[in-house]
Structures are given as structure tokens and as C-alpha cells.
Fold this sequence. Notes:
This protein has 371 residues and is an alpha/beta fold. The chain has helices at 15-28, 36-49, 60-70, 86-92, 138-148, 199-208, 230-261, 289-292, 296-305, 336-344, 356-370; strands at residues 5-6, 53-57, 76-79, 97-100, 123-127, 151-155, 163-164, 167-168, 175-179, 192-196, 213-215, 218-219, 267-269, 276-277, 283-287, 308-309, 345-348. α1 (15-28) packs antiparallel against α7, α3 crosses α4 and α3 crosses α6 (199-208).
Amino acid sequence: xxxxxxxxxxxxxxxxxxxxxxxxxxxxxxxxxxxxxxxxxxxxxxxxxxxxxxxxxxxxxxxxxxxxxxxxxxxxxxxxxxxxxxxxxxxxxxxxxxxxxxxxxxxxxxxxxxxxxxxxxxxxxxxxxxxxxxxxxxxxxxxxxxxxxxxxxxxxxxxxxxxxxxxxxxxxxxxxxxxxxxxxxxxxxxxxxxxxxxxxxxxxxxxxxxxxxxxxxxxxxxxxxxxxxxxxxxxxxxxxxxxxxxxxxxxxxxxxxxxxxxxxxxxxxxxxxxxxxxxxxxxxxxxxxxxxxxxxxxxxxxxxxxxxxxxxxxxxxxxxxxxxxxxxxxxxxxxxxxxxxxxxxxxxxxxxxxxxxxxxxxxxxxxxxxx
Length: 371
Ligand code: T4K
């Protein structure tokens, strides 16, 4: 049997380059707690992304949980059901009630026009996700937040490197959270970050991720341990070096998919949008069963038979999991678009070193199935 192909694969630098960093770590014996590589990565990321303040984290989920703590968010938060569970779990871990709002078919992001009708006296914030790296309608969401006095925390887990009119997408909202998990375009094994806009908030976030310590003997809040270690930071520094080349390779794969899938009735995919620099983190396709003649799951299983392991990101919806399905906002009639998209979506393999022959093969299988 041929080698299995997975939906993604991390893009790693030459081992020898990482070994150089390991030598330094071995010599200094500085492994974690705001070490030299940690400091260097924070600085380099600020430069690279054009941001002023960034706090590194051990993973994106803890960064989300801490972001909510940093703003003291409580009550109800408006969010999307079409994301990875961690988005809503972060609310649950903070004892906050999620209120789901439907998504838009064109980019799968929260439908900003439906946010206002979900606001109640208990609403304190909006937690949208730039899903697959597609920028949310940041202007409209900001306008709503300003009108109703709400905070915005963006889950930008998929959106590292994405820009909107030349600005990093992570620069929007009161806080924005990145993930550097192994499956992400920019990885530190596990990892994440919070982006904020002033020094006081940066300090507060740094205290919170280190048990609440402000100095050796002062604990200012019930913080958590969410620090990024030196090994993670070292990989991050190397990732930066290869990031631009990796995105170029991803783009080529996306263009090949688009080219090969363009004449298949019932198969839809995203196009590039002017003003946006995309990161090509995922290549989701949407299969309209009526037009295509077969279901999404049929295609998923057929590809699996061929040792090509695609993923149905994001199926089921978060609102369909036992923890959340009892919420009033989880009802089907509240989420018609999300319920349609979750049945249609299939993320095809994409990563910088993916062989283009695999892309041809995947597309041929999808073409043949239509007949
Ligand atoms: N918000 C959003 C919107 C998110 O998507 C995520 C995470 C978060 C928040 C939370 O951020 P973190 O706390 O994770 O930093 C994966 C990832 O575990 C998760 O990070 C990610 N989103 C989610 C979309 O995908 P799984 O369960 O699909 O991962 P897994 O282990 O099945 O990996 C997928 C494929 O990737 C494998 O089939 C093979 C390949 N792979 C995976 C790993 C872990 C590798 O080649 N090497 C590896 O080390 O969740």
C-alpha cells in the first residue's frame, strides 16, 4: 500500500539548524520562563507581523482561556458554531455562556449582520474566528462592539501571516489569539500567542500566563501556567526563516487544486480576494450532493480507501456536541447555513512539501466519482 497522505504535515527546518539552538539551550541551561529565545521570538514576531505587543503561550487553547481572563469577560459571549471545539471550550472553562450565531456561506465566518439580534443584557464580548484564515468582517464587528460596548477577542488560530489591506489580521479586536500547533502554517510544536495593543495589557497577560506572578513575591491574580518554553521558541525562530517560501509552495498547491477542480459541477472552493494576503492554511471544498451526485462522506470514504486522509473540518458543529447542544442558540433553526456547510465541507491535503502528483490523484478521484 502507498504511504498514507494526511490532511497536513508540519514544515520543519533542516535538523542541523535546530541542533544549533539545542546546543545553546544545553549550554545555558535556560529551558523556560521567558528565556532568551522566547524574548527573541516575541520581538521577531512583532517585527514580522507589524505588531507592537505579543505574548507567547504554550498552546492556543490556553491563550484563548487567558485572553478571556485578561479582559474579565463574563456572562454571555457571541461566537460561531463553525470552528474547532477549543474556541467554545475556552468560554466554558471561564464559566461563560456561548451564544451561537450563524455563519455566511461565502467565507464560513460568523454572519456579522446576525450578531445584533443575539445581544442580551448579559452579553459582554464577541468571539469570532477567522476560519481557514478567511478574515471576518472586522469593520462591521467593530462597529457593533462600539455601539453596544462589547469587547472583541478574535480566534486567529488559522490566520498567521494573513493580512487585510496590508495589516496583520491579528491586529484587529481588543485581543487576538494565534495557534502554533503542529498542524498550523507556523508551528512551535505546540504553541500560541495573544496580540494586544498596550503595554499594560501585555503585562497583565504575561502575569496571567505565569501563575499571576508580578515579581518574586507578588501574585496579582489567579494565573495559570501557559508559558512557551525555549525549545518551542527556537523552532519558532527557524519557522520565521522559512515561512515566506512555505506559503509560496502552499499557493502553488491551491492553484493546482483550483485548476483541476474548476469544471466539476457541485464542487465549490474559495477564491483569492483582493486586499487580502492569504496563507493557504487549508483547502476546503464544499460538495453539493444534489449537483455532484454523491455525498461529502462518500468522497471522504473513497479518498480514505486510497490512503488519502482528508478531514471534515468542521463537522460536527460545536453546537451539536453534548456539552452545547442544549443551549437555546444551538437549535437548527438558528444555524441553517452552518448546518448546511458542515455536511458539505471536506478539507483536502495541503502542506508545503505535498507532492503535486498527490494533488492530481485526489482531483482525478473526485472527478471520476462524479461520473
Ligand atoms: N481555535 C481554532 C479555530 C483552532 O483550529 C484550534 C486548533 C484552536 C483554537 C486551539 O489551538 P491549539 O490549542 O491546538 O494550539 C487539529 C489540531 O490539534 C488543532 O490544533 C487544530 N485547531 C485543529 C483544527 O486540528 P486534530 O484532532 O484534527 O489533529 P490530528 O492530530 O488529527 O492531526 C491532523 C493531521 O495532521 C494528522 O492526520 C496528521 C497530521 N499531523 C498531526 C500532528 C499532531 C502531523 O503530521 N504531525 C503532527 O505532529 O486537531
